[in-house]
Amino acid sequence: MLGITPTYGIGNTRIRKNNQNITSILDIDFGNGLWIYVFPGQISQNDIWIKFRNFNIPKSKIRTPTHIHWAVDILIKKFSNRNLTDAFLNDMLNRWHQITPLPNRQMQTILRNLAYSQNTQFIARYQPLSAAGFFTIEFLTHLMELLMLQEKTNNPQAYMFKNVVNELLSYTDLYKILSTAGYRGK
Question: pTM of the full predicted structure?
Fold first, then answer.
């Protein structure tokens, strides 16, 4: 049984950064109040900047997700169903190894790179994980793939995502997981 079928739309969401209006490239509506927006970034030529919003929370704002957002949700899912969560993490780690930098930041290029997010068999396999945590498996898979794309586009040798997944898989020290997921490189 599949849960939510996201709707992909041409970006029309606007935000201001450094006194400039920036329009999203892609808007993803999950039909449950959660949205993901992909904006052009500034770190590299094809950088993407990921934002999300939860319309279920009154006066919520568009915010930038960090690894800690999805890592905490994964921990909750792991307490509910460790084996299935570990299988999901292993699949996402395999996807991380497949990801290559974006050649451009056009909407269709980004959509083509959401291989697991748009794979109904993949989503169906992990659908039971939607019962635990805050994020549905559809939202979480999209968010994680987009973060992988962002990381690899800005630095093909990047490893932060991989480190967080490996910490979640080993799950020996909660504080180390949170420290790795919350690391900002400062």
Answer: 0.91
